[in-house]
Amino acid sequence: MKADFMKPKILYPLFMLFCLTENAHSQSTGNIKGSITDNGKSPLPQVNIILDKTKFSTTTNANGEYVISNIPSGSYRIIISHIGYQSVKRDIIIIKNATVEYSYALQASAIEIPSVEVYGGRRTNVARLPEISGTNIYSGKKNEVLLLDSMNADFAQNRARDVFSRVPGITCWELDGSGTQISVAARGLSPHRSWEFNVNQNGYNVNNDLYGYPEAMYNPPLEAVQQIQIIRGSAALQYGPQFGGMLNYVIKKPDTTKVLGFETQQTYGSFSTFNSFNAIAGAKGKFTYSAYFNYRTSDGWRPNSNYNFLNAYGSVHYKPTDKMDIGVEY
Prior knowledge:
Blueprint: H1 2-26, E1 29-37, E2 48-51, E3 57-59, E4 65-72, E5 74-81, E6 88-94, E7 99-101, E8 104-105, E9 126-127, E10 132-133, E11 136-137, E12 143-147, H2 160-164, E13 170-172, E14 184-186, E15 197-201, E16 204-205, E17 225-232, E18 245-251, E19 261-269, E20 273-284, E21 287-298, E22 307-321, E23 324-329
Parallel strand pairs: 1-7, 1-8, 15-18
Antiparallel strand pairs: 1-4, 2-3, 2-5, 5-6, 9-12, 10-11, 12-17, 13-14, 15-16, 17-18, 19-20, 20-21, 21-22, 22-23
């Protein structure tokens, strides 16, 4: 029983000491408040107020006012900064049990930040046909132009999905797995050998039977193609009866700054796949010429799927005037 009576007598002095300590600590702090304006006495919001080398900081409100509370009494350096204005550093004294008021009008910074103009653009592999080109009118017609020179695609195997996937609404079907027949369609039509498209090369039709069984049994190698023009639906009926649209493979034009240019690509792959593409082109006076030879062979990825593919092209053009072009293509 004696031990029980001794506990309150010991705890009570400790409790009184703790209260005195807290009271002494609370009485040794002070506050600072004020407002920050510009030269025209307009309040400045979001101004940084910092007591140097301490954890005490704040920003002004929408009225340019600020308050920092419970700062231990003593000497401090206040730093006031805002974008576009000169920073201010002043020595202040915090008095215990008191609120020091410190307001200031910031001076506009003499340093002008130069303006920065940012130009950006999205690099794309898809362009649009001009509204008028020669005797053709494309204004208001749904069309796309695939720019193959800037594409990262498997040209060696004429992999159609690598190219036509850039165009929404185009369906690709790899019928043979060799790329010898590109099968594409639009708007949910059958992509079987592109028979829903009026398939052209340089504006000339290459469908076997345009009004009967219009399969495209021939496609140029993609290494030789500069761009693929697609005109959708009824907008392409001027080129043929296929209501899926018109698909035009445009062969690369010769470099008129060279008398002779040569290009060769040799590709090897799995299943004894070999693709050889070789082309020459150039210009002499008013004559331009280009030709390519493409050979592709493979054992295929399954039995009886081997193939050998040959494709050759040649053209000679004579341009006596700027508005006249006479040419022969094979």
